[in-house]
Each structure stands twice: as C-alpha cells, then as structure tokens.
Task: inverse folding
C-alpha cells in the first residue's frame, strides 16, 4: 500500500515519497570521490573557512569521515543529504561541539590561515568571529526581546557594549525594535527566528553557522528568514554555512551545495547546478 512508503526525505505525495533508507542507499550509489581541487575551485581558490581530513563525532562514535570543506569569504554553502548523514555534525564540529579524532579546521586571518580546531565555542565566537544560530526554541521565552539581544553580547567586556550592539540590531530591524519590551514567548514563529538570528549578530561575527533556518515556519516567514540571510551575505559580506531540510530552498539560496551521505562528501557543486541535477532532484527536491 502507498502508506507504507510514507515517511521519506522530501515533501511529496505518499505515492512519490521513498523511505529514508532507500534515499540513503541510492545516494550512496551516486557518491563519487571529490577532488580537493574541485572543492578549492568552488571556493574561488580563496577559502576563508577550511576543513581538511576531518574525522569527528560524539563520544567514541565517529560520524564524519575524512571530510573536506572550503568556503570563500562572503559565500554561502548549503549542506543537504539523508537524515543522519552528518550535516549538523559539520556545524557542531566547526563550533566546537564534537570530538575531533583527526583533521583540522582553519579560518583565514590577516596573518594567514589560523587553525581553530581545538578552540572552545566561546573562543570561536569571540576570537574567530564564528556564530552558531541554533534550530528553533533557543531564545529565552520569559526575557524581553531586548534582554535576549543583550544575552547575545555575553562575551563582550561590559554590559554597556552589549547594549550598544543591541541598539545597532534594533536600528536594522524595525520589526524587533517595535517589540523590544515584549517577552520573547509572545512573538510569532518568524519573529522568534529573526530574534535568534539577530542575537547572533550582536557579536558582529564574520561566519554564520545556520541550522535549519526554515524549520517549523509558515511559508511567509520562511521568505522573511531567507531575505534576512541574503541581506547579511550580499550586503554585509557574511560567510554562511547552512543545514536546510528544505533542500530546494536551501540550494536556491546558496552559492554552493554539498551532498552528505553517511558522514562523507558525496557531491559538491554550485547550488544552481545541484538544483538541475536530476538525481539530486529525484532524491532530495521532491521530483
């Protein structure tokens, strides 16, 4: 019966959706070695964030296997793949939430590439300019919008600096400024997501790690979130590395796309080229 095939990766009718296990199996068949030269060329051979030969996971469990990544300054990268492929583990590894068994993570600086593999999350944010925007429900619901933004500056030298940075955010986003004294729990889903993104901006990061920006949002709020991310990339030069379950929307947004399968890089290309790939469309884009 058709119902037995429901529960697959992409959105579609029960007649077209295939199981996560079948998506994973077919995606493995598509996987091919990705030369490091191709990864470099996609980043214009000027990588700002580089992952080299990374083996990482949780506890003693290795999730990522010999993983490589390069993203140029001001580029955006969307990570897609079957559930459990290791997409969020990449963000976690960059930010310092995993055990690194082997490999390096570097970020470009005025003095050249700086290895940041072993830095703590606080050091990644304050010293390396990397901010992590978590999935939904990371705000403090009983705090006001203003207080939530102040919390985004908790690593600054003084509360005054945090408050000044929050005012810059309010100047940029009128929608939040109008609700600065409201408790965060009364915000709409789209406003909460805006607050989560804005709180990450208080420390003025150069790199944004964005985990599932559209999760749980109505279509109109999804449009709002991607408009904000586009503005941050195009007008402020932010480098964005994103995991997005809505693979079509993520690839439409991003300059680059990586397909992950079982903790390994299976495909890497420009976002538009992956959108046009019939196998990627069949497995991840709903047809």
Result:
């Amino acid at each position: 019966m058709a119902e037995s095939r429901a529960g697959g990766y992409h959105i579609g009718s029960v007649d077209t959706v295939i199981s996560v296990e079948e998506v994973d199996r077919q995606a493995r068949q598509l996987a091919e070695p990705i030369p490091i030269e191709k990864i470099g060329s996609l980043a214009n051979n000027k990588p700002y964030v580089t992952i080299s030969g990374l083996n990482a996971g949780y506890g003693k469990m290795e999730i990522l296997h010999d993983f490589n990544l390069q993203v140029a300054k001001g580029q955006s990268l969307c990570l897609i793949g079957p559930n459990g492929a290791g997409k969020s583990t990449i963000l976690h590894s960059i930010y310092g939430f995993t055990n690194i068994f082997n490999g390096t993570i570097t970020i470009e600086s005025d003095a050249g590439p700086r290895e940041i593999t072993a830095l703590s999350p606080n050091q990644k944010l304050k010293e390396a300019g990397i901010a992590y925007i978590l999935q939904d429900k990371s705000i403090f619901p009983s705090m006001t919008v203003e207080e939530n933004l102040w919390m985004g500056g908790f690593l600054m030298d003084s509360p005054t600096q945090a408050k000044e940075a929050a005012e810059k955010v309010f100047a940029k986003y009128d929608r939040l400024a109008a609700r600065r004294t409201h408790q965060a729990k009364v915000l709409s889903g789209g406003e909460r997501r805006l607050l989560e993104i804005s709180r990450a901006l208080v420390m003025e990061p150069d790199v944004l790690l964005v985990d599932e920006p559209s999760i749980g949002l109505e279509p109109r709020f999804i449009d709002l979130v991607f408009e904000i991310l586009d503005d941050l990339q195009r007008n402020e030069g932010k480098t964005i590395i994103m995991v997005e379950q809505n693979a079509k929307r993520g690839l439409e947004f991003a300059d680059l796309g990586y397909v992950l399968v079982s903790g390994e890089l299976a495909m890497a290309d420009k976002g538009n080229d992956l959108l046009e790939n019939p196998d990627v469309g069949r497995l991840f884009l709903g047809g």
